[in-house]
Design goal:
By secondary structure, the chain is α+β, with helices and mostly antiparallel strands. It contains ten helices and 16 strands. Strands 3, 4, 5, 6, 13, 14, 15 and 16 form an eight-stranded mixed β-sheet that branches. A six-stranded mixed β-sheet has the order 9-8-10-7-11-12, sandwiched between helices. It has a two-stranded antiparallel sheet with strand order 1-2. The model is unreliable at 1-8 and 10-23 (pLDDT under 50).
């Protein structure tokens, strides 16, 4: 009898953790469990697209994501969430989620990345979640922002935060065998980026500005065929961790460096033991070897179609990825709205 070929998505039953206890690794089925969670958040938030109320849209996404997470077979700890417990009633940092069974995992969530995008009906709002082995996700603590740069596998070794951005752009152009006019940098449209933006344009490079949503921007920068070469700028540290999860699945690189907003935050971050000079790569942001990532479109964008509704059903489009196998799936789903209402009420519209 010929032995069956090993399943690249299979995981060993258990390993010994750093303190000698038995610890269970994530099971292969968790990938599809997570996409159910992001689909739920996207369907709930999607009913608020273009209605000008980002708080209501975010609450709808949080409520739906939290409801589904309780059904996932895992013992999850929220490392990147909606804030501390006294500020967020659900999906707060430190909350335990899942049904309590193995595996023990860290969780990063952004139930609605791009709340303003959703409220304004603009592209690229997403529902996002990432999962990795317990104790492997970087906890940003009190530091809300980080400077970051990301790019695909072809230029990963060229990325640095210790040189001016325009010098990196020149190296990318040389690697591509093209002029600077063929290099595009995506960045948030913020006054703090004006100097770098001007330098890239004056050198002949192109800048593509976005108003929000730098997780989707990081995904766009590392994927082939998007005509965007780099993501650069100062954005949220939690989004940096989520981006690192996706990049560990897709390939490419991300580098980050904590960026305190003022002297008081610098003092608090330093006293908490963080090194403001440390360059945080993907393996520092998430040191786990088995990382899952799922994202579902809320509004139409370059990467994913948004949630769409008709009289009897709704459709969603999602990305589902796992670092251990390198598997990247695009999941297109059709949801029966009357049946969803029977199960969970009106939250899915």
């Amino acid at each position: 009898m010929t032995a069956a070929a090993p399943d690249p998505d299979a995981a060993p039953d258990s390993v010994l953790s750093h303190d000698g206890r038995e610890s269970f690794l994530p099971d292969r089925n968790l990938a599809m469990e997570l996409v159910r969670v992001t689909e739920a958040a996207a369907l709930a938030a999607g009913r608020w697209v273009g209605r000008g109320d980002k708080e209501a849209a975010d609450k709808a996404a949080v409520d739906a994501m939290r409801l589904l997470l309780d059904t996932v077979p895992m013992d999850g700890l929220v490392v990147i969430g909606e804030g501390e417990k006294d500020e967020a009633p659900m999906l707060y940092n430190g909350e335990r989620i899942g049904d309590g069974s193995p595996p023990e995992v860290d969780i990063a969530v952004d139930p609605l990345e791009g709340t303003s995008l959703c409220a304004r009906g603009e592209p690229s709002a997403l529902a996002v979640i990432a999962l990795a082995e317990r104790g492997t996700m970087f906890d940003p603590g009190p530091c809300f922002y980080m400077e970051k740069i990301a790019g695909g596998p072809r230029i990963a070794d060229l990325l640095t935060l210790d040189e001016p951005l325009v010098d990196v752009v020149r190296k990318v152009a040389e690697r591509k065998g093209s002029g600077l006019g063929d290099v595009t940098v995506m960045m948030l449209n913020r006054p703090r980026h004006q100097e770098a933006m001007d330098a890239v344009r004056e050198a002949g490079g192109a800048v593509r500005l976005i108003s929000d949503g730098d997780v989707s921007a990081a995904l766009f920068a590392v994927r082939e065929g998007t005509h965007v070469d780099l993501l650069w700028g100062i954005g949220g540290t939690p989004e940096g961790v989520l981006s690192a999860a996706a990049i560990k699945c897709l390939g490419g690189a991300i580098l980050g460096r904590l960026w305190p907003r003022d002297d008081e935050e610098r003092r608090v971050v330093t006293e908490a033991g963080y090194d403001l000079d440390e360059i945080l790569d993907a393996d520092r942001l998430i040191s786990g070897s088995d990382v899952f990532f799922a994202a579902t479109g809320v509004t139409d964008g370059d990467l994913l179609q948004g949630a769409r509704y008709s009289e009897g059903h709704a459709t969603t489009e999602s990305l589902v990825m796992r670092s251990r196998s390198g598997t990247v799936r695009t999941v297109q789903a059709r949801h029966d709205r009357p049946k969803l209402r029977e199960i969970v009420g009106e939250r899915y519209g």
